Amino acid sequence: MALVNCPACRTKISSLAKVCPKCQYSRDPNAEVDEEQVRLFQKRLFRDRMYKLRMFSYVAMTITMIGALPMLWDYITGIESGEPIEMLEHWGVYAISVGFFLYLVIRVLMALVRRSYRANMPPV
Fold first, then answer.
1. 95: buried, middle or exposed (CB in 10 Å: 19+, 13-18, 0-12)?
2. Contact present, 37 and 24 (Cβ < 8 Å)
3. What DSSP letter does each residue of 89-115 carry, written as one string?
4. Mean pLDDT throughout 7-24?
5. What pLDDT, on the 0 to 100 scale, is given for residue 33?
6. Closest of 32, 88, 99 to residue 63, by C-alpha
7. I need a labelling partner for 14 at 20 to 30 A (CA). Which of 20, 50, 58, 81 fits?
8. What is the DSSP-derived secondary structure letter of residue 117?
9. Where are the beta strands (DSSP E) in the chain?
């Protein structure tokens, strides 16, 4: 007997347990499938995926800001000192580009996850 994670709520349960004591998820293959249980499981999976993608989008925005703030600082100091300013030669352009590209990719993934969740939901 070992402890395993419940596929629905991630609670540690016994490998011999047929039903999770926390969420009532049944691991018995011969058990009758409850539609409400399936709906709840899909909703949890959707929520977890969207949460992870939102966190990744925050990381992408942080990468963008890591490039933008030094560029802004150099731009302001260049104006104050009267030096010519070449913004496209600054290293921050690369960080801004990578962060913005990652942000767009993550947003597309979020739309795809949302679409697949709506398509796979059983009717009410």
1. buried
2. yes
3. GSTHHHHHHHHHHHHHHHHHHHHHHHH
4. 80
5. 62
6. 99
7. 50
8. H
9. 3-5, 12-14
